Amino acid sequence: MKQYKVGILGATGMVGQRFVALLEGHPWFNLTTVAASPRSAGKTYEAAVAGRWAVETPIPEAVKHLTVLSAEGDIAQIAAEVDFVFSAVDMKKEEIFALEEAYAKAECPVVSNNSAHRWTPDVPMVVPELNADHIKVIAAQRKRLGTTRGFIAVKSNCSLQSYVPPLYPLHAKYGVEKALVTTYQAISGAGKTLDSAPEILDNVIPYIGGEEEKSQTEPLKLWGTVQNGEIVNAQGPAITAQCVRVPVSDGHLAAVFMSFADKVPSLDDIKACWSNFAGRAQELALPSAPKQFLHYLEDENRPQPRLDRDCEHGMAITIGRLREDTQYDYKFICLSHNTLRGAAGGAVLTAELLCSENYI
User: Fold this and answer.
1) Residue 158 bears catalytic tag
2) Which of the two ends of the chain, N or C, has the fewest CB atoms closer than 10 A to its terminal CB?
């Protein structure tokens, strides 16, 4: 496979740090450029993250002495040095929107962890196992931007990664009519740790700004179709959500209630559907793809964040407690690692897909 030179925008933040750690030893991607805010520019990466490195593994030796560039001020230099960038900048949404488009117009593909372009109609929002075919809309996006190589692709909100993957194959086969979802989201989803967020200790925070709206609407883009150069949202299934922050370091748990439109599958049918499901990421055997995407755990006390968030290097979804419900047809619990599958890992997997399909 071709070797790619890669940059990270927002490399000093929590998600940016996760990108740095994940790219160490990657078989295709060589991290050559790190960029962040002007206050970090000019420092070595080690100095820029001193006292706030939040990943469990040490800073990779090859990255420590890279000079941090300005994500906003050094666009031309960065675009000339790399084959593509990952975007994990912490800025106002309108600023991220403009910055990512500036990189794309500089002929530098952008694989973004941010939400700014999730609703741009010709920007694919990709979970490689679910809607890999959406990347074909990039041709229309390039035409709009006037670019040959440059484009933007994004990943979905981190909380969706727990409950949409189990619903996706069931909807394709049986037709899910509606789902009620409550997510229990780790503090790392707010860019914090248990040590840096004393307000979460011995506590649950019942509101995460904008999260419930994203949880209800973004799945419809994932289920959508590419038509006339843009992604048209699906009309269903209807999802209603509540999202709360809990005192967990990593791992977003979700409680899901679902009903089917017509024929209701059996418990065994549902488990078999999950067990047999594989997507484009598995077909291509992408380096970061889990061998099995959906894992059903029979133990009634699972999944648990501490025990199961690292399943298949944090890239698989774990599911448990499937049972009949009195108001809906069924209910279950599911879990994803929010900074791996839900953030940096999901973006790396998306980049692998884009490289394999010759978009980068």
Assistant:
1) yes
2) N
